[in-house]
Specification:
alpha+beta, single chain, globular, seven-stranded mixed beta sheet, 7 strands, about 280 residues
Length: about 280
């Protein structure tokens, strides 16, 4: 039963036909045990993450109703309620994205789009957050190339990676984004000189709800899902993510995706204009 998946069929002779069959069934039970354990862990973690903002909402509303307050105090209470509601909305969106990835429900998009233009747009989008934290967000060599798939998902990958880098970099630090083409792939890296990740945590950072510093991430509104979502999107595009880090020295996240080069500089300008116009029209609609 589901409560006794740790049990296995005894295999007196693993070399005969019945032994091979029993070994196959045991392998199936092992995979089922792992899947059920992951579902239970995910449910428990998601419930915990949902309880935190809900408790804050309830507490703030109860305090506001307990006695008459000044207009300023009511504004402060509403501000906290809006922040926690936004946090719940972000978490709900992330959980929906993960469930769609698990179910294999991804946008059926087979168009080529200019990755170098997308990276420039993301850099521009994240620049105010870098300025707010007094961090230098800059780009190294970004070679013109195109990637096939969903530009929205790939955009989310780099937004998540740059946001993470900014979050764990101290004021005065630097976050560098680079992109170069290799044979049939594009290799993009997001490098920071922040606090780094300890060796024992490094293999777990792509796991859902994993946080190297739960208290700090909670305060910043993170649930430990950004890297897991990014990993899912990259894999759905036939790519991979690798992470290198040293404590006190910084972290480099490298994304490799199947790609093709863009031929000429004149064509680059035309592609840049076409992609930017398309994104503007999508935003207006």
């Amino acid at each position: 039963t589901i409560d006794s998946l740790d049990r296995r069929i005894q295999v007196p002779n693993p070399h005969d036909e019945m032994g091979h069959l029993a070994g196959t069934v045991n392998s199936l039970i092992c995979r089922l045990e792992h899947a059920v354990t992951e579902i239970r862990r995910f449910t428990a973690d998601a419930s915990h993450e949902l309880r935190t903002p809900l408790a804050a909402l309830k507490l703030e509303a109860e305090l506001a109703l307990r006695a008459d307050r000044s207009p300023r105090q009511y504004q402060d209470a509403l501000r906290v309620i809006v922040e926690e509601t936004n946090r719940l909305c972000r978490l709900a969106d992330q959980l929906l994205t993960l469930s769609r990835n698990d179910a294999g429900i991804v946008p059926a998009c087979a168009e080529w789009f200019p990755l170098y233009v997308l990276l420039e747009d993301v850099m521009q989008q994240m620049q105010p957050f870098a300025v707010e934290r007094s961090i230098r967000l800059s780009s190294g060599d970004i070679e013109p190339c195109e990637v096939r798939g969903s530009d929205l998902q790939v955009r989310q990958v780099f937004v998540n990676l740059i946001e993470n880098a900014l979050k764990f970099t101290q004021a005065g630090g630097t976050v560098m984004v680079c992109c170069h083409y290799e044979s049939t792939s594009v290799v993009c890296s997001v490098q920071d000189d922040g606090c780094g990740i300890s060796p024992e945590h490094l293999p777990k950072v792509l796991q859902r709800f994993f946080r190297t510093d739960p208290s700090r991430n909670c305060e910043s509104g993170g649930a430990g899902l950004g890297l897991s979502i990014a990993d899912g999107h990259v894999k759905s595009h036939g790519g991979s993510i690798s992470i290198e880090s040293r404590v006190g020295k910084g972290t480099t996240v490298t994304v490799t995706l199947p790609a093709r080069p863009v031929s000429s500089s004149g064509n680059n300008a035309a592609v840049h204009m076409e992609f930017s116009t398309k994104k503007s029209l999508e935003f207006i609609s």
